[in-house]
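User: Look at the shape:
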Amino acid sequence: MKTMATSDMLQKKLQQLAATSTSTSTVILDLGCGTGLMCPLLRNISQSIIGVDISSKMIAKAKLKDCYDDLVVSEINSYLLRSLANASFSVDIIIAADVFVYFGELEEVFQLCKALLQKGHHSGYFAFTVESLDHLSLTTGDTNNKNMKMDMYRILSSGRYAHSKQYINQLATSIEDFHVVICESIILRLNNNQPVIGYMVILVLLLADKHH
């Protein structure tokens, strides 16, 4: 569940980065938009904002905010694949706040986001949060799948996934043209009055000029 504090932190970082951009027509894609918490925070740095969520009930609540330019009910990877097939569609910033707690392996969604950002652009931002595996004690009662790489990501007893900073950095740097701009620890929310630690990450896509 997104919190206003997490959304606000992401917005402030993106606003700082957007201030250095010369683009006047920024299109933002809000993956797992939920009830639309991010949208009002992003209006001042965007020309158009598209929200995507698998839950039709969440999309219905987001519509009530009358903030998004478009709202789509869809599973994330399916939406990204359809968007890649649309030759006229491209985005400048992709956001996934409190979304990857429902993903274990992130390579596919990273690759799809990179492919969408690079359509017709030489740069773009991919901003997201994950719960931190590094801050969890291995002595907790959290279950894990024996087939998973324990030092990379793990499913918790809550049913949510936590990811390690090493995994995020390795994955980001393994994908050509992605560079880590920010990867910092934050408090995502409180759970039973205890802070849930995570990472706020912003990657920048910088495409090399293939003609020089």
